[in-house]
Amino acid sequence: MPRTATTLLLACTCTTFGQADDPTVFVGNNGNLLGAVTSFQPDATGALVEVDYVVIDDRPAGGPALPGTNIEGIALSAGGRFLATGHATALDPEQLTILEVFSDGTMRIMDEFTVPNAPLGMAWIDDEYIAVAQSNIGNSFARVYRYTPGAAPMTGSLVQTDATAAGATFITNIESDPSRRLIFVQDSDFGGSSANVTSYRVDGDGQLTETGFVFTSPNFALDMALAPSGEWLYAGGGISGSGSDVLGFEVGPAGSLSTISGSPFVSPGASPAWITVSPDSRFVYAGHGGDASVWGFSTDVTTGALTSLGVTFDVGSRGSLGTVGTLDLDAGQFLFVSDNSTSFDDLQGLYSFRIEDDGSLTQVGDIAMTQGSQPDNFVVWQPGRTSCPADIDSDGQLTIFDFLEFQNLFDSGDPAAEFDGDGNLTLFDFLEFQNAFDAGCD
C-alpha cells in the first residue's frame, strides 16, 4: 500500500531538538579511517547504554584523507542543543562539524565548516558563540565564531567575531564558564618561559576582553577543568615540570586568575594530561598519558588545594587513556573514563565508576563499546536538576557571586539578565532577580 503523508505521520516516533532530556555522554571516535560520534545515557545503576551512532566521514584503507575523520576536539553548547567536533586529519584547513541533538540523545549532522588548522580544542559560550583553537605550533589563536543554524542541514553560517592576539605558541585546550561568559585558554610554550593560562570575557557580540592571566612555567597546562563551584580551575601538566604535576588556579568572580597555594600538586601517576572535577567540587580525577592511569584527589573547600587520595584505576598501556568526565545522577556521582585502544586487553570504549563518599571508585557494568575506532575525547550533558533561576553562576548555591554575575550580565546588555519578561533591561529586572533569589531553589 502506498505510504501517504498521514501514514508517515502515524508511523513516526517523533522527537524534538533542543537538548537531551536525560544525562548523556557524547564520545568522539578518533579513527584515521572513520570519524563518528556515539551517544550514551546511564541506566538506573549508572552503567552506560548506547543511544545513537553517527558517522561523519568514512574512507577505505589507503584512500585519500577525508576532513570528517580523526575527531580530536569535542564540545557541547551551553544549552545542550549543538555538539561541535574538531578534526585533525593533517589537511589544511581542517573541518569543524556541528551536530544537533534530539531530546532523546540522538543526533544529526547539521553543518560542516572549514577552520584554520587545527581545531584541537573548543568550548561553547552559549548556543550561539563557540571558541575554537587554531592549534598551529608557533602561530596559535583562540578564535570566537558565531554559529547561526539554517532552516535545514548544511545551510547554516559560521562567522568569526574575534580572536586572541598573535604570539601564542601552542593553544590546544579551551575551557568555558557559560554562566559568567568566560573562557580559559592555555598556551604551551614548549621549552620556553612564557607558558600561561589566560581568561577572557566574551560579550554578547562575541568580542573578547582579557580578565586574567597567570604564568605556568616551567609547567604548561594541557587539559583544563573548571570546578562546578566556579572557584577553581585545574589542569594537567603532562611531561612538563616534574612530569607528575597537576596545576591549580583560583578564579575570581570577574574572571581573574591566581595560582593556588601549593600548586603544582604532585600526582602518583606519570604525565597527568586530562582533568575532571566531581559535580560537588569535592574531588578531582586526573587521567595520565604516561601510564594510562586515573588518580583521585580531594579538594580543600577553602583553598582549592589538592591531596592525593591513593585512589586509582589502570586503563591499560601507555597512551590508551582517552579522557575523563563526571555526571551527577540519581544513583550518585559518576566518573567516566575512555579507553581508546585495544592493545592492552582487546577492549576499547567507556568505563563507568560510581564516586563513593570518600572519593573511591566502584566500577559499574562492563566497558561500553562505541562501535567506532579510538574512542578518545568525550563531553557530558548534565540537565538542570533543580529549578533555580537566580543561580546565575550554576554552582547549585545562592551567593553573592550570583548578584555579581547578574550585575555583569545587566551591564553588558546580555538577555540572560532579562527577568521580568518585558524584553527590556530595567530596574524591574533587578527586582525580579531579587524575588527569585529570596524564593530560593526548588
3D structure, described in words:
With 442 residues, the chain is mostly beta strands. It has two domains: 16-381, 7 Propeller (Methylamine Dehydrogenase, Chain H); 400-439, no CATH class. It is 7% helix and 42% strand. It has three helices and 29 strands. It has helices spanning 5-11, 400-411, 427-439; strands at 24-30, 34-42, 48-58, 71-76, 82-87, 94-101, 107-115, 122-124, 129-134, 141-148, 157-163, 174-177, 182-187, 196-202, 208-215, 224-226, 232-236, 245-251, 257-259, 265-266, 272-277, 283-288, 293-299, 306-314, 321-329, 332-339, 349-355, 361-363, 375-381. Strands 16, 17, 18, 19 and 20 form a five-stranded antiparallel β-sheet that branches. A four-stranded antiparallel β-sheet has the order 3-2-1-29, with no helix packed on it. A hairpin with a 5-residue loop joins β16 and β17. The longest helix has 13 residues, at 427-439. The protein is globular and about 65 Å long. The N and C termini lie far apart (52 Å).
